[in-house]
Design goal:
mainly alpha; 14 helices; 74% helix; globular
């Protein structure tokens, strides 16, 4: 058997999985989005573009507003994860402490706990009445009325950052470890401060990790459903929640599929713009 045929044979299981669990669901979603809605069946006879027109040409801009809020939420969660994750990743990449293994465990340990359990943990902490923060502040006579820490964008953002922060740290960690520490030493020996070395040397050289982590967190955020439901309680409406409402509650599968595909296109476009805006830094970093 030739080398090329052996390679193709080894790729068949992977290609089959990609086709079955990635390509076919997307094709089905696209076809479903053009079907006629029906309240008595999954879809009605024939095809139509009305699902997209209703979503994009809504006179009240309701669906576009939710799409925009979803993109903004994804941007802020990604930015916060990057600000928090970069120093942690840099410390892990450069530390020689004996506690390095323990630090790795603390970073990865949230991944060992289910998302629902972590959300309930934040509900105990951020609860408006019996939450740990509000109860403590009231006992200290620092506040009279409970702070709105949950069932709003703030509470949802806290939960999203907590859950997705490891997905930012891990790509950053790999990129920073690939940067030779001697380059930092050379920069500082030429008179650059540690802060200037960080922004002028380390961050540009670790840009591929920044891009990978940002894309990963952004995609996970705009497609998140459980966290906004538990910590937002339908008061924070984003596209995944709206899609589930249309499919499960209203039984409008074609319209829900159209909204899901619009979200996919918007997310892909945002990632494309982000890569274009940052691509001019990659050649300099390499």
């Amino acid at each position: 058997m030739s080398r090329s045929r052996l390679t193709l044979l080894l790729l068949i299981p992977t290609l089959a999985l990609l086709v079955a669990f990635l390509l076919l669901p997307y094709v089905n979603m696209v076809v479903m989005s053009f079907r006629t809605p029906s309240t008595s069946a999954v879809f009605g006879p024939g095809f139509t573009t009305a699902n997209y027109l209703d979503a994009l040409l809504d006179p009240d801009f309701y669906y576009l507003e939710i799409l925009w809020e979803t993109m903004v939420l994804g941007f802020w969660v990604t930015l916060v994860c990057l600000i928090l994750g970069f120093p942690l990743a840099y410390h892990l990449a450069r530390t020689e402490s004996r506690l390095k293994t323990l630090l790795y465990f603390f970073i990865l340990s949230p991944l060992l706990v289910g998302v629902v359990i972590r959300c309930y943990g934040w509900m105990i902490i951020l609860g408006p009445h019996n939450g740990l923060i509000n109860t403590t502040l009231k006992q200290l006579n620092l506040i009279e009325n409970s702070l709105p820490l949950m069932f709003n964008t703030f509470g949802v953002s806290v939960g999203l950052v907590h859950v997705f922060l490891p997905f930012m740290i891990l790509p950053l960690l790999g990129s920073i470890q690939a940067v030779d520490p001697a380059i930092e030493e050379a920069s500082q020996s030429l008179g650059a401060s540690r802060l200037k070395t960080m922004f002028k040397v380390i961050m540009p050289l670790s840009l591929p990790g920044i891009q990978a982590g940002s894309i990963l967190v952004f995609v996970l955020t705009i497609s998140s459903f459980v966290i906004p439901i538990l910590l937002g309680s339908y008061k924070v409406m984003i596209m995944p929640t709206l899609v589930v409402q249309q499919i499960i509650d209203a039984m409008l599968w074609p319209f829900g599929a159209a909204l899901a595909f619009i979200l996919s296109i918007a997310g892909g476009l945002a990632i494309y713009i982000y890569l274009k805006l940052t691509s001019w830094l990659v050649p300099a970093a390499r």
